[in-house]
Amino acid sequence: MKRCVVGASAALLVAAGLVTAAPPAGAGCLYGGQFISKCDGPVQPDGVWQRCVGIAGLVPSGFSSH
Q: Is 57 in contact with 34 (CB distance < 8 Å)?
């Protein structure tokens, strides 16, 4: 039983370390303004990207909003 607890604790620490060390996601998204946008490629210096989808900043969803 003690081995299982120690093994599970070690696995949890390793997983937490990997999540902490991962670089932040940066899929070329543009933040701010009245729209939420998601792009599948990084924004180039001239302002173009591969494809981008934009939605309104407030999307009602039942008792909550996104």
A: yes
Please give the Cα distance from 66 to 29 (Å, whole number): 16
Cα–Cα distance measured from residue 42 to residue 10, given in angstroms and rounded to the nearest whole number: 37
- The domain limits of the chain are 25-66
User: Is 42:49 a contact under the CB 8 Å cutoff?
Assistant: yes
pLDDT digits (tens, 9 = 90+) for 4-62: 888 888 888 888 888 788 776 655 555 556 666 666 777 778 877 777 677 766 656 55
pTM of the shown model: 0.38
